[in-house]
Amino acid sequence: MKQLPAATVRLLSSSQIITSVVSVVKELIENSLDAGATSLDVKLENYGFDKIEVRDNGEGIKADDAPVMAMKYYTSKISSHEDLENLTTYGFRGEALGSICCVAEVLITTRTAADNFSTQYVLDGSGHIISQKPSHLGQGTTVTALRLFKNLPVRKQFYSTAKKRKEEIKKVQDLLINYGILKPDVRIVFVHNKHCLQ
Ligand code: ADP
Ligand code: MG
Prior knowledge:
By secondary structure, the chain is of the alpha+beta class. The chain has helices at about 5-15, 20-35, 95-105, 155-160, 160-180, and strands spanning about 40-45, 50-55, 105-110, 120-125, 130-135, 140-145, 185-190, 195.
């Protein structure tokens, strides 16, 4: 028996957290709601396999936090397990963004109320910032995940039939409808291949 290399362990554990297109959308939406967003734009291209993008008008991510925003087990939501008693957010484990980075190419554009302009960060597979540049978006955060599961042939096979891909879109739509019911004050728009579905 051999111990698996750290990079393989990371990929396998990430693929247990991010299991599908709908699980990426769910994690990103929950982050947006945790950030106090009242407007969400969800865009998919090619059933989410080419691109998944969630844009919000929430509080944004401070430049100081950007270097760790996609590092696993970094979170702004709790400081220790005692805080679990008083949890008011969807997220708290600090695993979602790091896991998405491991199974897709991720860009994060964000701006807080205190910033003069937004910054777009390009992340690598372990959630480190590769590059950053100023951009033109308003307050809030846009997370873009490109080429989901490109490094996981088994999962790509799972979505190889048209029927399964369509089911996945339906699941995203149902998820958004559920959040719409749960949060009636939040505006949610869903676009697939440039067609508005809701
Ligand atoms: P968790 O939600 O468990 O804290 P994530 O990996 O989903 O972990 O996100 C890591 C951190 O990045 C969050 O704790 C939050 O501080 C920040 N973050 C992620 N998405 C957003 C967003 N849409 N708006 C503002 N901050 C965000
Ligand atoms: Mg989260």
